[in-house]
């Protein structure tokens, strides 16, 4: 899997076109590191293979796992590109996008954790809470 961070905004039509070509983009505010996005992608793929997916759309299934939410509308609001000024992209194949590349937009921050509703400070292990948030969704399935 290839994960990249970018600066810029994108409209819904462009995100749909990219998804049709196997490139999935998400608001960087909900991505707590490259591993978090890889985890969400892998779990979404497993869910579809096992018939355990909540959403009928793979892109939206990734959003659910990234945000740790069961409500599709809430996941789209948090992970979608509306009002995003940076984003993360993932694909199984190599890709280049016509945006400024900046992988630092994917780094964990307390601001991102609060954006996802995780309001706790535990020092350097606090970013692990995003994974736990996603894993809790899996346990509820």
Notes on the structure:
The chain has 141 residues and is of the alpha+beta class. It has one domain (2-136): 2-Layer Sandwich (PF0523-like), CATH 3.30.2380. The protein is 45% helix and 13% strand. It is built from six helices and four strands. It has helices at 12-20, 34-50, 58-67, 72-79, 110-115, 128-140, and strands spanning 2-7, 24-27, 86-91, 100-101. A four-stranded antiparallel β-sheet has the order 2-3-1-4. Helix 2 runs parallel beside helix 6 (128-140) and helix 3 packs across helix 4 (72-79). It is globular and about 40 Å long. The two termini are 25 Å apart. The relative contact order is 0.25. The model has no long low-confidence stretch (mean pLDDT 88).
Global morphology: globular
CATH hierarchy, class: Alpha Beta
Strand content: 5-15%
Write down the secondary-structure element order: EHEHHHEEHH
How would you write the strand order of the largest sheet? 2-3-1-4
User: Span between N and C termini?
Assistant: 25 Å
Largest sheet entry: 4 strands, antiparallel
- By helix and strand content, what is the structural category? alpha+beta
Q: Per CATH, what is the topology?
A: PF0523-like
Second CATH tier, the architecture: 2-Layer Sandwich
Number of helices: 6
- Mean pLDDT level: 88
User: From the alpha-carbon coordinates, what is the Rg to the nearest angstrom?
Assistant: 14 Å
The total number of structural domains is 1
**Helix coverage percent of residues?**
40-55%
């Amino acid at each position: 899997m290839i994960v990249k961070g970018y600066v810029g905004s994108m409209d819904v039509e462009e995100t749909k076109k990219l998804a049709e070509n196997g490139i999935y983009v998400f608001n960087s505010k909900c991505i707590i590191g490259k591993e978090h996005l890889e985890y969400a992608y892998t779990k979404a793929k497993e869910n579809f293979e096992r018939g355990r997916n909540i959403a009928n759309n793979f892109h939206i299934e990734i959003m659910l796992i990234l945000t740790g939410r069961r409500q599709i509308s809430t996941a789209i609001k948090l992970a979608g590109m509306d009002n995003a000024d940076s984003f993360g992209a993932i694909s199984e194949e190599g890709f280049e996008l016509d945006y400024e590349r900046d992988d630092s937009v994917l780094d964990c921050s307390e601001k991102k954790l609060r954006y996802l509703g995780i309001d706790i400070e535990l020092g350097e292990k606090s970013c692990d809470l995003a994974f736990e948030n996603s894993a809790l969704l899996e346990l509820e399935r």
